[in-house]
Amino acid sequence: MRSLYTTILALGLLLSEQQVYAQAHNVSAGYQKPVDPLVIENLESWQDMKFGLFMHWGTYSQWGIVESWSLCPEDEGWTQRKAEHGKTYYEYVKNYENLQTTFNPTAFNPKKWADAAKAAGMKYVVFTTKHHDGFAMFDTQESDYKITSSKTPFSKNPKADVTKEIFTTFRQEGFKIGAYFSKPDWHTEYYWWSYFPPKDRNVNYDPVKYPERWDRYKKFTLNQLNELTSKYGKVDILWLDGGWVRPFKTIDPTVEWQRTIKVEQDIDMDKIGAMARKNQPGIIVVDRTVPGEWENYVTPEQAIPEHPLDIPWESCITMGNSFSYVPNDAYKPTKTIVETLVKIISRGGNYLMNIAPGPTGDFDQAAYDRLAELSSWIKTNESAIYKTRTIAPYHDGDYYYTRSKDNKTINVFHLSEGIQYEQPNVFEFTVPEGFQAKEIKVLGYKGKVKWKQQQNKVTIQPIHGALQYATVIQLSTR
User: Fold this and answer.
1) Intra-chain end-to-end CA distance of the chain, in Å
2) Which of 47, 97, 392, 469 has the highest local Cβ count within 10 Å?
3) Under a CB-based contact definition with an 8 Å cutoff, are residues 475 and 409 in contact?
4) Could you say which residues of the chain have pLDDT below 50?
5) pLDDT digits (tens, 9 = 90+) for 225-277
6) Cβ 312 vs Cβ 347: under 8 Å
7) Gap between the Cα atoms of 270 and 171, Å rounded
8) Half-sphere exposure in the Cβ direction for 329 (13 Å, CA)
9) Would the CA dihedral through 174, 179, 180, 186 be positive or negative?
10) 214: DSSP letter
């Protein structure tokens, strides 16, 4: 089984050169299946949903930079701090943290996001409540470095607690709610202590030598996560990022970035997980890249596994090139988004697509355009997407497969290369041995489908009519 869980970064997508180093994300070895019945039930429901919205948003959107990574000296090579933002490192950090004093996203309207995402077929949302910079997009009582602080202009807005507004609005539209939270916090003295300069993304002191300071960090983290899971209504997923904050014994020496972790950074996930489950029974906990009880599903980043995985998994992939807002970002064509969704669900995963709000508090119009274009295709083909599971041969040439959970229906997706979708003259594909179709239909096609099956080979005569992005063929035994 180990071969299924090791690094699977062979992509069906291209990565931006600037993102390759930081975004490279392996899949942990040794998945541990949950035993809590409520967690198992929640995971099953989550796996039925297939398609979710990810949003990276913070003060950094004002500079249009790659989230908060530029604060980390280790990552300067790919984040490229701009001179106008600070001539020295410390001037840069000061100016970055002063972004709090100008953050005023008055166009913020989560209902607009929820409506567009729901129409496009998304079923759950994961929002960045705090990135590595430590700026809280929620009303934490542990720090004044937050959107609701009097230092932040937007604090005077009645929707200042954007996490509350997003969670409440999306929940009302039937979405599962996910809270992204960074385990490392580069703002607090308990993680990056000003007595030492930061060298890399890790804690900049040795927690073994300074246990009292590390204990304060553990308490700080626990308290913030307690706030998120007790004061913001029903939360279905706790999505923990910053996998270098982990017990030293869990480091996988075969993974390059994990070899850079030189000190113990155990924040007591057993205590955090127990607290989260007490506050939110059945909550899915995703302690990314840290195998064990608290990594309830695995999360390849900007990547699609080459083969199906028989464990719960999700690919988080950007609609543009960046996870955070970048002016004039290049958004993927709707056809590419459809193809990405098909490839992911045929291999048993969920697609968490990231759209980054800008400094005004809204998406680029191009993102809304993609969601609107996606909505009609999703609506036509939803029965082949949601509540489905994998079935061999999974992928054969231009054809990709899913099945209904009762095994009575097989869905066959046909994709084509190129900018525009092109149907073949004749659809020809295999079905599993022993599967005998009684009815075949092409979703969205109103004409009569002429087909024949010989053993496990199915042939469908030409379909006359324009189908966008992909063709979905549904075979039923009923």
Assistant:
1) 35
2) 469
3) yes
4) 1-24
5) 999 999 999 999 999 999 999 999 999 999 998 998 999 999 999 999 999 99
6) no
7) 28
8) 27
9) positive
10) H
